Write the structure tokens for this entry.
Amino acid sequence: MSCGIVCTNMGVKAGKRIGVKGEIAAGAKSFVLNLGKDQANVVLHFNPRFDAHGDVRTIVCNSMDKGEWGAEQRESAFPFQEGTNVEMFITHDPSNLTIALPNNHQFKFPNRLGLQVIDFLNAEGDFTIKSIQLE
Ligand SMILES: CCCO[C@@H]1O[C@H](CO)[C@@H](O[C@@H]2O[C@H](CO)[C@H](O)[C@H](OCc3cn(Cc4ccccc4)nn3)[C@H]2O)[C@H](O)[C@H]1NC(C)=O
């Protein structure tokens, strides 16, 4: 069950950009942005972990296909601070998603579902979405 905001029917096609602005809670342990078709078909599970599941200050990404998790991918950069506002941008093409983070950090994650249109976004954990831009 999602505890944060849920967006559906977004209709974001390849090449368009999703901008997410929000506030990371003071004392944050972990937050999640899920993007995809729906809750069971997630092309990007983006999970910055300040201190969760044995990970410290590590971004863990994964996908979910028909309810089944894929293989995790961990990123080296962690440009997040508890108790601050942050803006992130996600674009996608048939092969990859590109995630742009603060301090000019950027990384790619494979589009394992081959998703053409991103309709679904939800946020969970120690993050409050303030605005979403579809551009
Ligand atoms: C070494 C054997 C155990 O492996 C561990 O297994 C855990 C359980 O499967 C892995 O943690 C899970 O990793 C998934 C991604 O691969 C997801 O991140 C799972 O969380 C799903 C989730 C919870 N929530 C609610 C939430 C989120 C953030 C804060 C508060 C509530 N939203 N999505 C999260 O529970 C965790 O990443 C994994 N660690 C490793 C190193 O593989």
About this structure: The radius of gyration is 14 Å. Residues 30-32, 45, 47, 53, 60, 62, 69, 72, 124-125 surround 2XT (CB under 6 Å). The mean pLDDT is 96. Residues 79 and 104 are 9 Å apart (CA to CA).
